[in-house]
Amino acid sequence: MRIRIQAIFERSLLLGGIALIGLASLSGVTVDPFRGKIHPVLMQAIEDTSKGIPGVQGILSLFTGPPTRTLLIRTTGDPSLSKKMADLGAETVEVTQGFIVGRMPVEVVRYISNWPSVTYMEPSRQLRKMLDLSRPAVLADVVQSGTGAGLQGVPYTGIGSLVGIVDTGLSASHRDFYDNGSLSSPRVTWFGFAGASAAGIDSGGHGTHVSGIAAGNGFSSRGTYTGMAPGARMLFYQTSFFDTDILAGLDKIFTTAGNAPVSVNLSLGGATGPHDGTSLFESAVNNFATGIAGSKRILAVAAGNEGDLKEHFHGVVTTLGGSTTFSVMVPVPSTGSPGPEPIDLWAAGTNLPGRQNEYDEYTVSVTGPGFTLTTLSGQTAISAGFLAVSNRVDTSVPNGATHITITPTNALVLGTLSITLTRTRAGGNGVIDGYIDIDPNQASAFSAGFSPATTEGKIIEPANGDNVVSVAAWVTRNTPDNWGAVGSIAAFSSSGPTRDGRQKPDIAAPGANIYSARSRDANFLPSEIVTSNDNYAIMSGTSMATPHVTGIAALIWQSNASLTGAQMRERIRRESDGVGTVPNTAWGYGKVNALKAITATVAAISAPSSVPTLSSVTVDGSNSSAAFFGNALAYNWSLLSKPAGSGATLGGSGVSAAFTPDIPGDYRVSLTAAQAVPAGTAPATITATIHANRLPTPPAISGPASSDNATPVPFSAVSSDPDGLPLTWNWMLVSKPSGSVASIVGSGANANLIPDLPGTYVVGVRSNDGTDNSFLAVATYQLVAPGTPLTPPTASGSSHGGCSIGSATASAESPDFSWLLAGSLILIRVMKRHHSC
Known about the structure:
Elements: H1 6-10, H2 20-26, H3 40-47, H4 55-60, E1 68-75, H5 81-86, E2 91-96, E3 99-105, H6 106-112, E4 118-123, E5 128-129, H7 134-137, H8 140-145, E6 162-167, E7 188-192, H9 206-215, E8 233-238, H10 243-257, E9 262-266, E10 268-269, H11 280-290, E11 297-302, E12 312-316, E13 323-329, E14 343-347, E15 349-350, E16 358-368, E17 371-375, E18 380-383, E19 387-393, E20 402-408, H12 411-414, E21 416-426, E22 431-435, E23 449-451, E24 469-474, E25 507-510, E26 514-517, E27 536-539, H13 542-559, H14 565-574, H15 594-599, E28 610-611, E29 617-620, E30 633-641, E31 656-659, E32 665-675, E33 684-692, E34 700-702, E35 706-707, E36 713-718, E37 728-735, E38 743-747, E39 750-754, E40 759-768, E41 777-783, E42 799-800, E43 803-805, H16 818-822
């Protein structure tokens, strides 16, 4: 039987219980960490401990109580890992396939980072929390009454469906969560992490409010403040808001639901991370949302309340040696935070297998009151008393990108930081994104953050995953907070896209001044309590928008229990009320519409966006669905367009079709899906474009490796195109010595490097077949002064124990990283916004 996840959070490690097998396995061994597998904030804690595990004596020193960490670990799926980690004194459990949460000494983290079956480790982060008018706004009222067009008089309230909530708590004293208001007939099953307040107590108030929107039955208001799915049963997990515990909550809810349809709500999130779906927390949440083939589950996640906060910097450095400068006012830590929030910077590009070299590198220069700290790529620098900087390329995981973290140690001393990023390698496109987490309820929230800041790309984690439904907020009633006119997107609602350019949010729902169930265990301002009925409170945020979608999914499942989670996602997205050209970065596919989502036929195509020519392509319509249970769909496929000269044909009349693209270009496929019952139901049509081309082969570069003569250096490249298309060549100087103004001049497959200073030059080239580039190929050239022996390049600055020690002009005491060791927790907010009146 696996260890209960609650135990990880309930008690400290019994370090004296480390098994003898663990001692023996480490005896006499000194182990350095595999840095590329360890998140920089976690690595900082390891750097501040002893360097290595020096045999049995070092292991015995663990009994004195070294710092421990709760962390999330991505693995290759080795089923023996939990047992192996337990032998070293860790407590672990696999929460979803390939993801383990655990608590262990930092020295054990160092040791297991070298195991091949451990691919990446992140420290646990603590998340922040992110109806009378909203119910008719999404047409849930006519769905519940059965009076909406196409419902044939049948009411839908979510009977037979499950609604799952992971949040602060759900008040057991509120009668909206009982059948007919009877306290002896609860509609809720409570779960929670060990150490939480008793089940049924919600001292935060957020979870009760969210639950009322999703599935409150309005008993205490005679139906006025009824939620979306008043007939659904609820599974509520009271969380500590650590990401590891949130995953435990999802595991508990989905395990309890089994094969029953279940819609789960996460009204929480955080602003830092890669924002591309690859962080361990976001990947694990997306795994839960996906489930196995045919799973009847959907996971709605708040898009975020960052729209009016300066939490995102977006810059482009177009040239090698160019730079961008921006400032950051570090926010005062919110209550309960272990320290100032880290500044999280990510460069576009990757160094993952198959796409090596397609990344940028930067030198980071941070200037604050009385000091300047410069950190080269590959270095970790500490400026005494001020901050720590990690500047590295994640060479294997999670996304192969350049990741820079700047961790202040004292925000009150630092004030505003000026940061300059100088591009020293040009394998990517020069785009850099920065994130910082700001609590909007702090007094300094609107002055803190980046300058300049961008308004887009602020979707919080974990709402960037492909298969979660990311929910934005729009305004359904006038508010004293000036968050927008009725019918507009709320000013606080986070906009997309994801950092890697994918569409988010997915949908929008009411989220400004929402009336819903009030927990009497929580403290509310007078302005946050409904004056006509104090059983209800008023809150705003994407936290409030998200449970509208969660509850509507339960209504839809009552109408058609055969829908898979994938079909449900398509149904909610596509049967919305579009705003502008959809999808877009503010509204996603538009305003959620419960009536359309229940009554419409939905057509959906699953197809690759690009394929090699001369390979068979299958286009699949299985995510299409008919309205109401028991209806069959008729599928009609066609090939609307293809490249001139193509003889490709599309074959298939069922749920899928296939064709073989014979020449490079774009092929546009159409699917019309139709249902017979009810008579007169309109068919649905959708199209998809598939790009066909075989990439040119990565060029092979020829040229000298070194010279002591500063004359033009010739290089040549050889590449071929599998489709026989003519090639052009794009030569570039990927990196050069500091201070160099060298250039490279290309003419077809040949180029000349014009070096000017001794040092190392990296030459790159791509071939292009007129449609797509090849992967980047590079060659290294070293220019040395005459008579100087060739030596590998070295980074400037002194080093100690793997850390470059930066200089500062200010005098300060040694840095205090005790808060890093104690928790190093990045707070992630609950997605709500309080009244400011």
